[in-house]
Amino acid sequence: MSNSNKAQDRAAQRKALEAEAARRFLKAQAGNGAQDWDEAMAWVALRPEHGVAFAKVEAGWEFAEGLRSKPPPWIGERADRRIALSLIAATIIGMIWTITLQLHGSVDRYHTALGEDRSVRLADGSLIHLNTATSVEVALREDGRHLHLLRGEARFDVAHDARRPFLVTIGSATVRAVGTAFNLRLRSDKTELTVIEGTVAVRDNGSLPRRVAAGNGAAIRGGTVAVTALRPASIQQRMAWERGRIELEGETLAQAVEDMNRYRAHPLILGDTKLAALRVGGSFHIRQSDDFVRALSASFGIRSIKGRDAAIILMPPENDE
Predict the structure, then answer these.
(1) pLDDT in tens, 62-71
(2) Where are the beta strands (DSSP E) in 20-177?
(3) What string of DSSP letters covers 273-315?
C-alpha cells in the first residue's frame, strides 16, 4: 500500500471513529436516563482513541452552549459582539446538526447561485422554493422531516403528515409545522419568518414555543421570538421575490441596497452615510437593479460612480457635498 493510500485509510478510519463518537454522544445527550451515558463511557474506556474522539465532540457541543456566557477575548464589547457570538454559535450548532442527520440517514442538499431561484419537490410531497444564494439540507426520516436552512431565503409549502413533524432549523432556532406554508429569510441580524398558511411553532435557543399563525410574522434572534401582525400588502411585499420583484414602500436606502445586492454580482455601495436613512419606494425587477440606480438619480439626484472592481458607488448630489 502506498503512503497516499495509507493516509487516506487512516483519514477514513478517523472519520468513522469520530462519527461513532458523535452518534454515542448525541444518543446520550437526548436520553432520559443514565443508561445511555453508561454505555457511552464504556465505549470510551475500550481504547484511548475512543476517548479522544468523544472529547472532541463533547468540547464542540459545550463550546456552542457556552459562547454567550463566556465570549472569546477577541470579540469586543460593542454591539457587534452579540452578532459575532450568534454567528459562531449558529455555525457550530449547524455543524452538530449536520452530523446528527448524517448519522441517522441520508441528507439531500439543495442550493441556488447568486440571482438564481429554484423549486424542489420533496418525496413527502412538500415543496421548497429557494431564493437567490440559498442552501438547504433535507433529511426525511420515519419519525420526522428535518431541514436546515444554512443561508439565504426559502418558502416551505408543507405536505400534511401528523405522524412526521416538519422541522426547519435556522441557527439556534427551530420552526415546527405539520401542514402549512411559511417563508424564512436569514438576515445579518435576525431571522425573518412570514406565515402564509396554517400555524407554526417557533423556538429559539431553548425558549418556550411561540405559535405564529397565518397573517403574522416574527423576528427571531437571541432566544427571542417577536411576533407581529402583517397587513396583506406587507406579506405580498415580503413574497415579491417569488414574482421576480423587489418592492419598496418607504424602506431606508440602506435596506434597499441590501436587498438589491442579494441579486447583484457587483454590489451597490453607499459612498456617504448621509444617504443611508433616505426613504425610497418603487417596484423593481430583481435582474434589472440598474433601473433602481437610475430612479435614484431621477428622484434624488444621487450620482452613481462605477469603481474599478465594477461595484457602483452611490454619492449625494454634487451641491450637497
Answers:
(1) 555 555 455 5
(2) 108-111, 118-121, 127-130, 135-141, 144-151, 153-157, 166-170, 173-177
(3) GGGTT-EEEEEEETT-THHHHHHHHHHH--EEEE-TTS-EEEE
Report how far residue 221's alpha carbon sits from residue 228's, in angstroms, rounded to the nearest whole number: 14
Which pLDDT tens digit goes with each residue over 255-276?
Answer: 999 999 999 999 999 999 999 9
CA of 18: how far to CAs of 41, 44, 261, in Å? 15, 12, 40
pTM for this predicted structure: 0.68
Mean pLDDT of 18-33: 72
- By the 10 Å C-beta count (0-12 exposed, 13-18 middle, 19+ buried), 83 is classed as middle
Lookup: cell for 123 = 418525496
Walk across the sheet containing 118-121 and list its strands. 118-121, 127-130, 153-157, 181-186, 191-197, 216-221, 224-229
Give 34-73 pLDDT, tens digit per residue: 677 777 777 777 776 777 777 777 666 655 555 545 555 5
Q: List, as one string, the DSSP characters of 217-274.
A: EEEEETTEEEEEE--HHHHHHHTGGGGTEEEEEEEEHHHHHHHHHTT-SS-EEES-GG
Q: Distance between CA 147 and CA 16 in Å, rounded?
A: 24
Q: Which residues pair with 151 in a beta bridge?
A: 135
Residues 65, 29: contact at Cβ < 8 Å?
no
CB 177 within 8 A of CB 218: no
Secondary structure element (H or E) that encloses residue 82, with its range: helix 80-104
Residue 19's alpha-carbon distances to 12, 24, 32, 65, 287, in angstroms, are 10, 9, 22, 20, 43
Amino acid making up residue 100:
T
Res. 75: pLDDT tops 70: no
Q: Which three cell numbers stand for residue 173?
A: 432556532
In angstroms, rounded to a whole number, what is the distance separating the alpha carbons of residues 135 and 147?
Answer: 11
9: pLDDT strictly greater than 70: no
- At residue 314, φ and ψ (nearest 5 deg) are -95, 125
Side-chain-side CA neighbours of 14 within 13 Å: the count stands at 8
